[in-house]
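During the reporting period the student researcher (J.K.) took over the structure-prediction task from the postdoctoral fellow and processed the backlog of single-chain submissions. One of the processed entries is reproduced below for the supervisory committee.
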Amino acid sequence: MTTLLQKRLFGFSVVLLGFELLVGCGDKKPVEDLKGEVKVISMVNSVGGLPGPVYVSQAGSPIHWQPWTKASFKMANDSRRLVLAVIAMPQRSTFVNILADLYADAAMVNLINATYVPILIDGDAIREFKQFTALLCAEMKLGPQFPLIVWMTAEGNPIAWKPLPYENKSSAAEVFMKSHDTVAKMFANDPDYVFNNSRLDQAERRKRIMLRLNEVETSKEPTADALRSLRQLNSLYDPVSRNFYGLGGLFPVGVLDVLSMSARMEGLPDEQRAMSLKVVNSLLEDILVSPMFDPLDGSVYDAKRGSSWLFPVYDSQNCSSQARVVISLLNAYEATGDKRALDRALGVLRFVEENHKLESGLFRFGITYSGDVGKWLWLYEEAKDILSPEELPVWVAATGKKKIGNIPSELDPQRKYFRGNSIAFAKSPEEVAELLDIDSTKVKVLLESARKKLLKVRNERLKMPAADKDENAVATFRMISAYAAVYRITGQSSYRDLAVETLVKAKEIFTAGPRLIAYPGEGPDSLLAARAFTYGVAINAVLDVEAVTLKGDWLQWAGDLFSTVSEEFSTQTYIKECPSAADLTDLPITDSFLLFEESTFGLLAISESRLDALGIPIVPELKEKLKAFPISAITSPVIHSDVLQAALMRNFSVSYVFGDDAPETLIEALARSPLHGVNRRVASPSDPPNLIPKPGEAIRLAHDGVVSPVRSASDVRIPSVP
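J.K. obtained the following structure tokens:
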């Protein structure tokens, strides 16, 4: 963490020592107790030194942004101001342009700074606000929309909220002014009413959330219902329209993961294994040759526009999502043997290492870019001016460029991007060579020289913003899992070494006693304390490293982290996202379905199934919560794909138990087994006799309890890596 951040946060920590504002708590002081002398406060933009791309992007904003801390609410309380909170997700970088619209007019900036205590919230780091935004939008009968602007009292209770618009809608400034006039007038006329009413609304909101949590229906037959959910997931793909219903616009990471795993799980019904493999093959055929993979820098985009993969959302290519795609593509490669998936995965890995790896060896969140979509697209004439006569036909053939553009009219009905081209490596060098009757080696040389020229031009015209420079826990743990997966598929021990080295550094940097932190350095828990999601990512990364090293070095830490989850996040009814020490809302917020990425519940359910198979003790109450299979996963398997994967792992995984004297070839075969659905551990003296392997051998425990000997690497019954 930078010295600047430590200095920036020091002032807040001093304030916290003398002030305990009960933001959002159940037994609030009556509003009369909050009255007294109004203090004049002096504010400046205080987020410039904070970690993460949301804050980095707003370091130069004239709005006096404050962080999500008790000290910021004390400012509002002392000055008798309302809080103006903006919740932004760095995964959706349009927030940069939207916030720029707020401070484009100097008079509006003065109004905001003079009237409110403006608080900027990074919904990725302060993850309870990702779910809180979904809850508030649901009250407006809307899906989750970011950024969300929320007017709050000094107690942290919402008064009003509005999604800030983007693209062809009203400006953010117009939306703000309409609500500002109403809220400001209401607060000026009767502040007691505003405090009391928002307090009552928050109390009712708390009751509604708890009621919904108590009413979640779980399966009485989780194994059978998991199979029903898998059947439903496979049925959502339409091979005619090539559309996967329920997927939305996100890259299908979770779907590929669960279907690639189920395609090789021998305990599943044959027809479901065959269907899973068919759908994975179809998805790869649709995606691998699409512009979702950037042919210029090798990265992958998080989402698409409309129903096809031909028009990506040119958004932030953050480290965490890139690493997830690497793992997903490697799993799909193992299931299908489609070498393009391996090539794309290694290309994305190179992009992350070149763009998001810091000198410390750890990883940052990544660049958040927002700008004109047209700058990402290419006119045929532009490529003609940049490339040589020899390069142009090769590049056009490989990437699908057309003189009239290649954006389908249904994705651009107003023809705003007419004649624009979204580019992809739609054809392999060998296909281009055959098409143009050129040597394939020469094609590769020409494609590489064209790529470098076009990337240089694009980087110049995009003018990418300053990047965050702070190590990010989730991004780092994701990359640890990616390194483990690459070793498993390729057999290159250097990637296993990188996984171990990075995990060693991560344990040093992202731990504070038994707890994790989202970013290194000192500061208020409300900003830096790791949320439950981070623990889920971290535990699985630790187990991944243990799975490819098989030395037993990391099992204790995985178990300790899971114990911390039980202590910090497990309540009688649900798994909360925010630890108590960091919680400024006191709302029962949990993360139980996919929104941008896996859910906390799904990640922890996956890690529970793995720890249980490895014989690591788990607190019974937490174990029972994570074993519950929601009925909603049957009808909505896409947003519960991680929970489905956990259920399949719990019921259909196989386990290998090996002795200390197992030969190296056998150990390597086990280390390169799938990370999900195959468990491996060293034998323990406390194991039952039938699970004690003979010298130099291993024992295989099938999902149905059948035990068989494993005498050599060839007996490790897993699909061989193509």
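The committee noted the following: The mean pLDDT is 91.
J.K. will present the remaining backlog at the next meeting.
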